[in-house]
Amino acid sequence: MGKVDELNAMNELHWLIDMVQTIEVGLVVLDRKFNIQLWNGFMENHSGVSPNDIKGDNLFSRFPDLPEQWLKQKMESVFLLKNQAFISWEQRPYVFKFRNYRPITGRAEFMYQNITLLPLSSLTGQITHLSMIVYDVTDAAINKMQLESATEKLQLHNQTDALTLLLNRRYWLQGIVDEFERCKSQHQPASVLFLEIDQLQQINQGYGRIAGDRAIQHVAHIVKKHLRPNDICGRYKGETLGLIMPQTDAADAANRAEMIRADIEAAELTYKSSMIKVTTSLGICELNEAIKTPDTWLDNASTAVTQAIASGRNQLTVFSNLG
After folding, report:
1. Is 270 a residue whose pLDDT tops 80?
2. The GGDEF domain covers which part of the protein (predicted)?
């Protein structure tokens, strides 16, 4: 090799070393025993450990917080299969617990990372080493999470009745359809409960429409206290709330409904120094083989409420008991 070739080779080596040390990604090279052979400037800057101090040390001994068993399995597959592997921040937010110093995403405490594991072969073609390429993806991760959070809030807003903060009519009715299909396919009981606020129009006329709104919120607040995790509660129409009770037959639904009715009757609603008496009429329908559509299920529950109102209000009627 001539002097010019030697000089070119030296220059290329210098350039490569300079690139490795200054590139804005982490680069770590490990031998078969996971001892560190290369530790570039990115890794030094974020770990505070210099290449000279760490070279030859075992990765897991120097960083005991690493998920050792999980990460070793990933690395062993790279050595064995001679294929690269990827670790996404969505799979695990970070491998190296580096603090985040990026000003744009200052709210993130730690650096979110994508990592690529690459097999490195020797001159004989044997896979003797492995490289870890560590990418700082904090900006992209935070942006995606913020977008998902905004989307989730928008979806929740679209599903929620503004006055009661229960499901609105559209999404509650979708719950009826879903529960109807689930119960029919799995042969499980379920009941629908309607609660209609008694004489809401009189409350509006006597105390004003704001008082009527407070009465609706008052009832919704009490009903929420009785909800189980699988219950689906929504505002069916102006003065009527609907409650879907999965895995609940008519008898159990009636027991729960009576407790709700009694709590509403006993609770006090004060509006502008006036005590407003609020009661509800309730109707239940248990899903059974005779009910062929969700609409019929709803109609039966509505019929039960009508019967409760006709019988004097502030009481419960179960559809199966109707003559």
Report:
1. yes
2. 188-321
